[in-house]
Amino acid sequence: MKIRQLEAFRAVMQWQTVTRAAESLHVSQPAVTRLVADLEESVGFALFLRVRGRLQPTAEAEALNEEVERSLLGMERIARTADEIRSLQRGALRIAAAPALALSFLPRAIATFLREHSDIRISLANHSSRTVVDLVVGERCDVGFVVLPMSHSSTHGEQLIATRMVCVMRSDHRLARKKVIRPADLAGEHFVSHPHAIESRLHIDALFASYGIERELQVETQVSAGICAMVAAGLGVSLVDPITALEHRGRGLTFLPFEPVMVTEFSVLTPARRTSSMLVSAFVDHVRRFAVQELDPKFVST
Questions:
Q1: Cα 273 to Cα 156: distance, rounded to the nearest angstrom
Q2: How many C-beta atoms surround the C-beta of residue 40 within 10 A?
Q3: Bridge partners, 161 (sequence order)
Q4: Which backbone phi and psi does 239 adopt, to 5 degrees?
């Protein structure tokens, strides 16, 4: 018993003529007749009687048709579901991301993604990069976005985008009119830092030490969004990644290129013990395009 035989049987039951059944299935009349005959042979009883030139279903056909309808409707639902999955209109995404991405950048990227994939369900959790790594390893999310470098690209971890850190200051700061900020420009400035436990703090401190530049290190905070808020409050200047800068445009802050270049790498991770779904791959590609589209090219590291 084959699906095509059942489809031909259902069409004849519905239209009561081989001609209209054939038209509905887009096949020839002999093909429908052969499929029904094969089904009769398979089930072992007659399905139709010809009465005054028309097909009349037998009582056995009526009983069989109820189950055929249920089965084919189920197959159609499966086919429809497969089509929705293939076209990325069905599914769910569990995303974990570092604050630099999760607080406002990813929500905006998700909003543009859902314009084309409106029935996808998405959850976004905000954690430190190290915690995001643990969530991905433990398969407690489908994809993770972190502010960590990848030593090399692999199936389950790759660079999302590499960016150049920018100097952030209030728009009324004495340095706000400069084209580029260099370490010497920040000598003696109050500087808002990350805590020592965050890797970027170590790199920034080492850079200024190598130039022999001293800053006033009075306040610090864990996330880059908090740094921008402190700078806006007049607590000093700082260096942040351009994605954070992107989310704080128009808030009385100025973001300027900083030299020498300090790179911030954003990476994307997926669980190592399973391949990424089409939905995950499509979302990652979307986020990468969104980042390139939104960021000022001079702040993207090539």
A1: 9
A2: 18
A3: 266
A4: -120, 130
Residues whose CB is less than 8 angstroms from the CB of residue 8 and which lie 6 or more positions away in sequence, other chains included:
21, 25, 31, 32, 35, 36, 39
39-90, pLDDT tens digit by residue? 888 888 888 888 776 788 888 888 888 888 888 777 777 666 666 566 566 6
Q: Which among 82, 147, 94, 106 has a CA at the least distance from the CA of 286?
A: 106
Q: Where does residue 188 rank: exposed (0-12), middle (13-18), buried (19+ CB within 10 A)?
A: exposed
CA angle 30-31-36, nearest 5°?
Answer: 100
| Pairing label, strands 238-240, 166-170 | antiparallel
Distance CA 265, CA 252 (A): 26
Against a cut of 0.90, is the pTM above it?
A: no
Average pLDDT, stretch 104-115?
93
Identify the CA nearest to 35 among candidates 1, 72, 79, 71.
1
| Residue 50, strand partner residues | 55
* Single-letter residue type at 207: L
- When pLDDT is cut at 50, 70 and 90, the band that residue 113 belongs to is very high
pLDDT tens, residue by residue, 150-197: 654 444 788 899 999 999 999 999 999 999 999 999 999 999 999 988
Residue 275 DSSP symbol: P
* Separation CA 184–CA 208 (nearest Å): 9
Task: Tell me which H or E stretch contains 94.
Answer: strand 92-97
Are 105 and 246 within 8 A, CB to CB?
A: yes
**What does the alpha-carbon distance between residue 62 and residue 79 come to, in Å, rounded to a whole number?**
25
- Expressed in angstroms, the distance from the first to the final Cα of the chain is 60
Parallel, antiparallel or unpaired: strands 263-269 and 157-164: antiparallel
